[in-house]
């Protein structure tokens, strides 16, 4: 009869303190549930690679295998293959950014670029500014280096410059601890909002005034469904550190991203990359190079845009039809995500189990804040991967779960067990007034 074996972790006391502080990615944790046949996933940020033409993939891959096999299967330079960097320069030129190959470094996806930037510039306790909420993968990459991440709220026009200026005044000019501001100006993840030109200009002005770098992450810039093209920050200021990727316009499985930055900045990052992975995949880079050189990729991109636009519209229409009046959400002009805000008393993290039982996933909002607490009444939902029919059904299922939570609170409010949201807010405001001037709050119930 086989005996049971219990295995104990014998390395627990040897784990680095920075790893103990890191949180797992909520998206990665949901991957196992997302593949269940009964689940409709609104959690991931995956492009629909089934839209890619088989012939284009075959041609680009064959070029790497048949024409350049000796190079494709060999080590490469740390900065990446020159010919692929030249292709990146062409892609950047389409966006309004002029750069040279020696101002480009290829990375193992833009996620690797985030880690390299953090590794190069962040010491424990350094200040990093970001939108709030912000990309959870960036928070995870930064957290290994133990920064003080301070989130600046956004509205429909992007990061609020008045709140950024107030935070910068608290930090002070010339503060050596202030390292950079990380922003996703186009169709922000998770918010879906786009920074307007006036705020882009003001952000760059403040970066010069207070002496911090701007790191522009632009994975979604080409995925615009409405409105006109927004000029990247990098096109307005050569000192901006720009991150790009092929993951959302080609294939995320070919882990290829890039950093466009001044040569002195890239030289520092190059040192960090040497110790991280020596070099990227030459095979992946050659496939990417031939895809964007030898295939009608712009036509495929237009297909992506058409399909994603339809799916976004399906999601926004379903939210209008099924979600309760207490809910609010963003209306993205592009990208992959919608940000939903529910009443403060709803915890989307604790609600996730009920959503899984109902056959739908999303990402709880607290995953997008460094404290893991803020945003608990919010969620990110994705529209790029599922069909319009599945999206409508998923939103319907999710609305039912939310309605059950709200109905429970409505019963408590009617019974007087808890205050209605507007009453609680009035009470908090009164207390705040009392704390600010030392006087007692005015009783407004009479």
TrEMBL record:
4Fe-4S is among the record's keywords: no
Biased composition (Polar residues): 428-446
Keywords: Aminotransferase, Pyridoxal phosphate, Transferase
Classification via Pfam families: Aminotran_1_2
Residues covered by region (Disordered): 425-446
Highest taxon listed in the record's lineage: Bacteria
GO function term, MF aspect, one: transaminase activity
Sequence ranges assigned to domain Aminotransferase class I/classII large in this UniProt record: 56-398
InterPro entries named in the record: Aminotransferase_I/II_large, Class-I_PLP-dep_aminotransf, PyrdxlP-dep_Trfase, PyrdxlP-dep_Trfase_major, PyrdxlP-dep_Trfase_small
Cofactor entry: pyridoxal 5'-phosphate
Protein name: PLP-dependent aminotransferase family protein
């Amino acid at each position: 009869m086989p005996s049971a074996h219990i295995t104990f972790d014998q390395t627990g006391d040897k784990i680095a303190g920075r790893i103990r502080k890191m949180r797992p990615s909520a998206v990665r944790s949901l991957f196992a549930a997302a593949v269940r046949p009964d689940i409709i996933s609104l959690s991931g940020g995956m492009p629909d690679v089934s839209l890619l033409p088989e012939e284009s993939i075959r041609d680009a891959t064959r070029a790497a295998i048949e024409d350049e096999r000796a190079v494709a299967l060999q080590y490469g330079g740390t900065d990446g293959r020159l010919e692929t960097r030249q292709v990146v320069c062409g892609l950047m030129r389409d966006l309004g950014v002029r750069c040279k190959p020696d101002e480009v470094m290829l990375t193992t996806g833009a996620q690797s670029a985030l880690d390299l930037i953090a590794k190069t510039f962040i010491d424990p306790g350094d200040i990093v500014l970001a939108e709030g909420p912000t990309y959870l993968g960036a928070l995870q990459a930064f957290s290994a280096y133990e920064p003080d991440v301070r989130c600046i709220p956004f509205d429909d026009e992007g990061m609020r410059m008045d709140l950024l200026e107030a935070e910068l005044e608290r930090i002070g000019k010339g503060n050596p601890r202030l390292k950079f501001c990380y922003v996703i100006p186009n169709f922000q993840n998770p918010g879906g909002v786009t920074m307007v030109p006036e705020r882009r200009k003001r952000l760059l002005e403040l970066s010069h005034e207070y002496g911090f770098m701007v790191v522009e992450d632009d994975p979604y810039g080409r995925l615009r469904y409405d409105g006109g093209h927004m000029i990247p920050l990098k096109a307005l200021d050569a000192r901006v550190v720009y991150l790009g990727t092929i993951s959302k316009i080609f294939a995320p499985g070919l882990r290829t991203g890039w950093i466009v930055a001044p040569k002195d900045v890239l030289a520092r990052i190059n040192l960090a990359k040497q110790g991280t992975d020596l070099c990227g995949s030459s095979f992946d880079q050659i496939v990417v190079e031939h895809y964007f050189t030898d295939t009608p990729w712009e036509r495929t991109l237009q297909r992506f845009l058409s399909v994603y636009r339809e799916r976004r519209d399906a999601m926004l229409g379903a939210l209008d039809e099924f979600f309760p009046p207490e809910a609010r959400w963003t209306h993205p002009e592009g990208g992959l995500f919608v940000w939903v805000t529910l009443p403060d008393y709803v915890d989307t993290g604790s609600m996730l189990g009920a959503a899984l039982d109902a056959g739908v996933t999303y990402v709880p909002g607290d995953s997008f804040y460094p404290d893991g607490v803020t945003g608990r009444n919010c969620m990110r939902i994705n529209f790029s991967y599922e069909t319009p029919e599945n999206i409508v059904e998923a939103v319907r299922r999710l609305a039912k779960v939310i309605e059950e939570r709200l109905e429970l609170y409505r019963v408590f409010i009617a019974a007087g067990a808890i205050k209605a949201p507007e009453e609680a807010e009035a009470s908090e405001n009164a207390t705040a007034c009392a704390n600010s001037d030392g006087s007692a709050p005015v009783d407004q119930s009479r």
